[in-house]
Amino acid sequence: MQRIIAGFLAGLTFGAGLVVAGMSNPLKVQNFLDVFGNWDPSLAFVMGGAILVAAPFFRLARFLPRPFVADDFRVPTFQQIDKRLIFGSATFGAGWGLIGLCPGPALVSVSLLSPQAIVFVLCMTAGMLFARLVASLSMRRALKEA
Amino acid sequence: MTEFTPYASLAGGVLIGLSTVILLLANGRIAGISGIYSRLFETGPLANGKSAWVHGEKGWQLSFVVGIVLAPLLLMAGGFEIEQVFTGDLTLIAIAGALVGFGSVFGSGCTSGHGVCGLSRLSVRSLAATVTFMSVGIAVVFVLRHVVGG
Q1: What domain range is B104 assigned to?
Q2: How many structural domains are present in chain B?
Q3: Against a cut of 0.80, is the pTM above it?
Q4: ipTM of the complex
């Protein structure tokens, strides 16, 4: 139960942060990406602010035996830069540029109930499930060959 | 045009950082939205046969997503105005949504997981991902606004 409450508080804070920062407005995100035109550099402050706050705690977490309400820390240790990472990130970047929404702001938009937000989230969800399917199929094939 | 809002954006960023810290210190997990949201759709019990909703990760993952969805409603109830302007039609929105969904899961992260958490951990892998999606995003907006729409 404590983990569920912590998750909820983190979600509320995250969602509020996205809205306050202006990331829930696709036009503002596109203006941030439009560095050769009407550049609005505001969103650099979002990532900067978030990293400034979070970075010291990621360092601190290394010295803690365990999290407050869970059994273990699960922080990725994988460091390899592979084709999947680059292809996936490039595809994500293309969609992000086309409309100006990434997954967090898309979920924030759901409660505004606009047809645009709903269509975006439905298609995003389908894309995510398809990616999970492709990834699990290729992993199965790799296991068979090994 | 949108207004340059360094203070509001910095404040929003601080809140996002705070959320990341809550999830890390309390639950020991990374606040990567594409990973958390997409895993909600994986079905089945844990390896030991217990419910993933009660004993596994699903419970907090769902409450995290519910928190994100409720946040704007709370802000609006408090008198905050939320502006949302889309520049494309529904077809373009559908295509973009599918690309964002597929790409973020296939590339193991989005702006939150790679951009915020990854860079905070000084992960080279996340840096490569962030540079890639930012550059492609910039290139796509350049083409949309200054080549096709110019």
Answers
A1: 86-150
A2: 1
A3: yes
A4: 0.94
